[in-house]
Amino acid sequence: xxxxxxxxxxxxTTLATSVGLTGAAAxxxxxxxxxxxxxxxxxxxxxxxxxxxxxxxxxxxAPxxAPxxxxxxxxxxxxxxxxxxxxxxxxxxxxxxxxxxxxxGGAHLGAPAARTWAPPLCGPNVCVHYALDTDDxxxxxxxxxxxxxxxxxxxxxxxxxxxxxxxVAAGYRPPKSDGTNGxxxxxxxxxxxxGALGLYGFCTSDxxxxxxxxxxxxxxxxxxxxxxxxxxxxTPLENMQVTAAHEYFHAVQFAYDIGEDTWxxxxxxxxxxxxxxxxVDDSAFYLRYGQLGDPGPGPSxxxxxxxLDAGRGLNVYGNWVFFRYLTERFPAxxxxxxxxxxxxxxxxxxxxxxxxxxxLQAVRRxxxxxxxxxxxxxxxxxxxxxxxxxxxxxxxxxPYPRPPLARRATLTRNQRVAERRVDLDHLTSATVRFRPxxxxxxxxxxxxxxxxxxxxxxxxHAVVTSYDRDGDVTTRRVKLDRTGAGAVSVPFGSxxxxxxxxxxxxxxxxxxxxxxxxxxxxxCGGVPRDDGLRARVRGTAxx
Length: 543
Prior knowledge:
This protein has 543 residues and is α+β, with helices and mostly antiparallel strands.
């Protein structure tokens, strides 16, 4: 099940042509987003319209498919493509992007366009709009309180005001004011039966034109009840809470840069929902699809086949754990939330006068501000994922998956040498395990590891971890020379050592031709320079 189709990532065609990057994404200057040829823009815009139409009418949804969250980025792409559409296509796009209270809006929600809307319920920062009739009306029951609005609407407003206050207290920019669209400058939340379309909810923007600059306002739709027959996991309240936190973080993101990389937007939004509603743990479902659990396609696994910054599939949600790893390692807080992700979004800021860095640039800059290097930290992350129960705060109490081994070798007195090879794309890793077998019980046995990786400038790293029989774990980074060669020796007697794992890492962020890939497959829509690199490790048992 592909939660993010290739077509949905066509935002690149309104953003830019090549900026000619030839280095390791080391150019931290502002990204040039000059539009490409008109024919390419028109083709991409038509594809974005088709994708959004299918999603918001339920035309491409299998009957047994679980609810998902892909609509925000699908509609984001359409909003960015809208200018290339004409005639009936432009009208159709405007209807999909319009608020359900607008004259042309709401026809795609599975209920008649002519709804009766109650006066919105507003707090200091958020207004909740709800219908009084059609399938979009929430439960209109009003319990024994002093209000006159339905209890569900009260709960949605209270949740959104809490979410807003948390993000602002943590130092994030609030969603951008939409003027009088929706009634007044407060952020508008609409309730509708989006669960019937297989959606938790979404945020989008009816601001036009968009970019540059790329900071825009947002409005959001949430389901009107999160009924158990449509959302079988968690309670209706829990589903509303995590969706509110996730989607409202998208509204915050829009105030920085609506055109940011998909993996970065979805990964940090999923991270944010888990930070705010940690007990719900809806985000744990996606871990199996990210680098913590996904072995990648093909019959012979050789490391995570999907790069961390890939903008397709459920991995964009599962890789929220990368941001969890970073914020547990660098836990400085403001307003109850770790500051590192905030620093990333400030580096990605595309408002007037901002640097407008793309995701990997922003992540790298934020880590540098914390005194860390992205390549080294990514290598540590890849190694740590082999033992999530020890590393992650929730890893011991939750069934966190772990990536499977790429290769194995058992060394014995008669077979003392083994070499294993793997091919690595950028921002992926693979772990090789060496186990002491028969004849290696004595304490004096050691494992000599000789590594032959690509040139260090291409992102090569390696981490060696020994797992002892008494439960102790010892980890060391392998020092590689410029050519990518390195060696290390560790204890290997089987009475003490259960096994030794070598995690081989391609932490390259080198990209060329940003904004040239119309599929926006990887960060900045560029072409990775260091995919398919061969890494070798030879293990020798010595006494």
